[in-house]
Amino acid sequence: MGIMKNQFQIIQAFFPHANEVTIEPIVGGLINTTFSVQIQNAQQCKKYILQQINTAVFQNPKTIQANITTVSNYLKSNKYPHPVLELCHTVEGETETVYDGVTWRLFKQIENSYTINVVQNPEQAFAVGVFFGHFHTFLNGIELQQIQAVLPHFLDTKSRLDAFQLALQSANSTRLIEADEPIQWMVKHLDLPLKWIQLQEQKELPVRLIHADPKISNVLFDTLTHQPKAIIDWDTLMLGTILYDYGDMIRSYTNTKPEDDPDPEGIFNADLYRALTDGFLSETRTFLTKVELENVSYAPQVIVYIQAIRFLTDYLNGDVYYQCSYPEQNLNRTKNQINLLKNILKV
Question: Does one domain contain both 215 and 323?
Fold first, then answer.
């Protein structure tokens, strides 16, 4: 059967008559634990994604499930031309099941697709910029009151800075010593996000529905055409500024190294920066406001800085948020982001 008994029982909550089931882990996610599932019956073989929801991060799974369902239905009803996430239902009609205190869900798998961790060339960056811009063009018409808050302070830049200060006070001495150089750099540049905080507080940036985690590994590519096929990982769908998504795409796509590679040499690709920006704006420029357009180049600086501070804060707190495969991984992620930011500041 290829799976443990408890996983088989989880799958049977969705498909009680499933017998021939295989499951393989999907590595790389920082928050949720994910598996590829194949269910074989006499007629056909169907593929799914089984995922354990990290309730330490997403404390109300029903909220994220509701948002995914709302957006999926909206996009399909408005003839969005690309695959969307589709949740499976249990025999009780729920989109999740709890087994031994752990919450699980099952998606229909978007087949004939793959993910990447590093953008290969400017043409690919441009294509993904267009693809995400197209996604945002469709999302732009949704009624925002339908979207429920999943991480209320996720986009609160000031709270990220406050959490960093608290971590500096409570961290153990060993980690403070190990992280001394990144800490000093981050403290020296604490003024970088102040304009961003002001824009937030004065509500100068329009509130839109955003993805909030648009890193390159959350884009599926078609196995035949190698073009963008679908956007995945909708857990963080939330209301905020579209500049966050753009800035995080720059953060993810222009970084030529794995996110935990602390080597500064050759980390930034300016050609990818320009191509991604051109692609994204080709789809979004028609509805972006003057203030949004004025802060396009500023957004990546803030987003990378805040991501560095999040990795560093988690390292100082003992790695309680991001999954780590070795003790220094969050620290190396911090160094990686600082190296990237140093290059972006020169653009």
Answer: yes
